[in-house]
Amino acid sequence: MSLIKIENLSLSINNHEILNKINFKTSAGKILGIIGESGSGKSMTANSIVQLLPKGSKISGKIILENQNLLDLSEKQMCKIRGGEIGFIFQEPMTALNPLKNIGDQVAESISLHFNYGRKKSLQLASDTLERVGLPQKLFSLSRFPFELSGGQRQRVVIAMAIATKPKLLIADEPSTALDVTTQAKLLKLLKKLVVEDDIGLLMITHDLAVIAEMADDIIIMKNGQIVEFGQTSILAKGLKNPYSKSLFDASNYRPKINMGQLSEKPLLVIKNLTKEYDIKQKGFFSKKEKFKAVKNVSFQIYEGENVGLVGESGCGKSTLTRAILGLDHLDGGSIFLDGDVIIQGRVAKDSRKKIQVVFQDPYGSFNPRHQVKKIITEPLYLLKTKMNKVAIKDLVSEILLSVGLKPEDGEKFIHEFSGGQRQRIAIARSLIIKPKLIILDEAVSALDVSVRSQILDLLAKLSKDYNLSYLFISHDLSLVKSITNRVFVMQAGEIVESGKTLDIFNMPQHNYTKTLIQSTPNLNSAIKKLN
């Protein structure tokens, strides 16, 4: 018997068609993977199930959860279904959590709301649930706030909130996109365990075919609001039939052509004995002041035209190192040279600043929402000595938008009008506009669809060759780092524990930590071999 059954589900928002006659079903104890690019309708399908839709929405068809059509229920009745019978895990935990409430109260809130339990019993059940997801109270007090936890720990809190009421159906919308590989592996293992132990159905929405190949029992592939392919996950091994499905599969295995020939012997970025410490909050007024070493005596070089990867788990020091290179953090020891010039923290000269640009993991947080895109991507132009006229700037904006897969007219829009993947493309366009010598890409393609990612990687490879650009790829996606870099540095607890040529590191890792990272990375080819 089906746990949830979708029949001819159609959705339009302000007369714009979003979903067109969607049909699928899944049972308790099963994992259904939903794959597709941004705008394909994956998330809107999930939002339709729980009736979290914007104004101007018109929905038709049937959404049957255990013999009741959810579209026939009132908002009051749906409030009992949401969080009660259907749990929802959102992509970004910080937006799903209340920063002013501790984690115990946030998990207990849904328990109290749906079961009418008192505070004491709700908190006890919250503690039990948090322990189930790997956050035992003896290590993670209920009084902790979200900002005191890492990204993976916050995602576990969101999972605890979703399963606290023992729902029948769990919807996970890109739950592991921003997580490092070891944390992702633990969370995916946890979700599979919950499906088995609680006999629930799981709808897993993601753009990562490798994750779906390892997790799901069945798979749906969506495009433009329609299902173009549906079947057991084994169809990935037996052969996909739809041309769009095949293109997604090819893009997932895509490897860009990078410059692997003789590189320049001139160092572009030189880091010598870099050390950075932070003060630890004192436990008492008379307690001894302690320091946390985020980066410990790190040294390395990046040469002109070279692509270098920096990998490691959350909290290993990657972001601290990035801020130091950009001149945003003061150093406690060591020095940084860019193209022969010293990077002095807090007052980087324009000539040095224009040689280095950065693409952040969360593009939305780095944009001014009041500015049009054409103004956002031309922000770095102030670093140029020669001022450009309006016509030249307009032509340059059109050129750079086209180069990242957008349209010239997109320059007139505001950032809220774009999807997450499109925002990342705009961030990349901004970093490219003054053609710097070094670009730091901090998880720059982690949120992109596989086909868009392949286009962006091709673009980056082409620009690297044409303009002798160097890249520092900071990523938790080891398969990406393997395919796009010449050398790789593995960072753990503030130290570089292993470094060398990329293929040597991946084929013959020496350090146990490196081996753990590689083993934790979802591998599409390995997963498909198991499906055969």
Would you write up a description of this structure?
This protein is α/β, with parallel strands linked by helices. It has 4 domains: 169 residues, Rossmann fold; 78 residues, no CATH class; 166 residues, Rossmann fold (3-Layer(aba) Sandwich), CATH 3.40.50; 65 residues, no CATH class. Helix content is 36%, strand content 25%. A 6-stranded mixed beta sheet has the order 6-7-8-3-9-10, sandwiched between helices. The protein has a 6-stranded mixed beta sheet with strand order 16-17-18-13-19-20, sandwiched between helices. Strand 4 and strand 5 form a beta hairpin. Helix 8 runs parallel beside helix 20. It starts with a strand and ends with a helix. The mean pLDDT is 86.
Task: Using brief descriptors, characterize the structure shown.
globular, 4 domains, 25% strand, alpha/beta, 532 residues, Rossmann fold
Describe the secondary structure blueprint for this structure.
Elements: E1 4-13, E2 16-26, E3 31-36, H1 42-49, E4 57-65, E5 68-69, H2 75-81, E6 86-89, H3 93-96, H4 103-115, H5 119-132, H6 151-163, E7 169-173, H7 181-198, E8 201-206, H8 209-215, E9 218-223, E10 226-232, H9 235-238, H10 243-252, E11 267-280, E12 290-303, E13 307-311, H11 318-325, E14 333-338, E15 341-342, H12 350-353, E16 356-359, H13 373-377, H14 390-403, H15 420-432, E17 438-442, H16 450-467, E18 470-474, H17 478-484, E19 487-492, E20 495-501, H18 502-507, H19 512-520, H20 524-531
Parallel strand pairs: 3-8, 3-9, 6-7, 7-8, 13-18, 13-19, 16-17, 17-18
Antiparallel strand pairs: 1-2, 1-4, 4-5, 9-10, 11-12, 11-14, 14-15, 19-20
Helix pairs in contact: 4-5, 4-6, 5-6, 7-19, 8-20, 10-16
